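Renewal narrative, Specific Aim 1. Our central claim is that a sequence can be written position by position from structural information alone. The example that follows is taken directly from our test logs and has not been curated for this report. It begins with the structure tokens describing the chain, in the order in which they were read.
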């Protein structure tokens, strides 16, 4: 097994700090929510790259199994990165932009690339958030401002957990269930089909669960409720709380 050498702090830093670049965008473009911005640095001439996991592939055992993590990260997320670069092969300037920036402004992109950005780009962003908000020793409950906001919005952590579980299990086909901050700063539970990224319609996602079959089928098969319950045991609430704080600051 290949262990990653990048530190978790370094990876999370990449995911969390895009506000300066986003705010420097030209007039007419919507600023990218800071917490959704995956990477602040330029993408390089090759375009987008697959960031290493911030933990080992077996780090989420027994909740998310090693084989699923390897396939999911290397093959599914990796394919999305390749497809995104292929979709933008004639637009080198777009390959230098942040993916959350492209998605937030998708209606202003050339029509020829919108499908690729929506699907492959959405997948790239969604998966980066998914990896960054899980971790070994996870689970439990948030604290700080996020805990207060969840309590005031949903009544209790348990009520929030039940509602996110129900919403995720109601997804028909492939999609994602999300806790997100809307433009007014209100927490909402939302689902999206396929790889549609909520940043396309102004949501800044805080944490979410991949409900595609590839995310769970090797270990859980049809038992999607068991997968959702397991995912709650690997949520890195410290990382999620930082995303919430960044999203609030970007309002
Ligand atoms: Mn996936």
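The sequence written for that structure reads:
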């Amino acid at each position: 097994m290949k262990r990653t050498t990048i530190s978790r702090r370094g990876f999370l830093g990449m995911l969390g700090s895009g506000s300066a670049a986003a705010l420097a965008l030209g007039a007419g473009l919507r600023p990218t929510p800071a917490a959704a911005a995956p990477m602040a640095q330029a993408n390089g001439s090759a375009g987008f790259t697959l960031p290493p996991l911030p933990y080992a592939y077996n780090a989420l055992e027994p909740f998310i199994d090693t084989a699923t993590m390897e396939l999911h990260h290397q093959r599914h997320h990796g394919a999305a990165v390749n497809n995104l670069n292929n979709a933008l092969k004639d637009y080198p300037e777009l390959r230098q932009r942040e993916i959350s920036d492209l998605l937030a402004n998708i209606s202003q992109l050339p029509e020829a690339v919108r499908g690729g950005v929506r699907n492959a780009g959405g997948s790239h962003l969604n998966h980066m958030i998914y990896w960054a908000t899980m971790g070994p020793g996870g689970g439990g409950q948030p604290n700080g401002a996020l805990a207060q906001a969840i309590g005031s919005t949903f009544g209790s952590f348990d009520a929030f957990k039940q509602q996110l579980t129900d919403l995720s299990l109601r997804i028909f086909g492939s999609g994602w269930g999300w806790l997100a901050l809307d433009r007014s700063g209100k927490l909402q539970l939302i689902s999206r089909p396929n790889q549609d990224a909520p940043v396309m319609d102004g949501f800044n996602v805080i944490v979410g669960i991949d409900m595609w079959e590839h995310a769970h089928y090797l270990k859980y098969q049809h038992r999607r409720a068991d997968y959702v319950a397991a995912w709650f045991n690997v949520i890195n609430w410290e990382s999620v709380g930082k995303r919430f704080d960044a999203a609030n600051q970007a309002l």
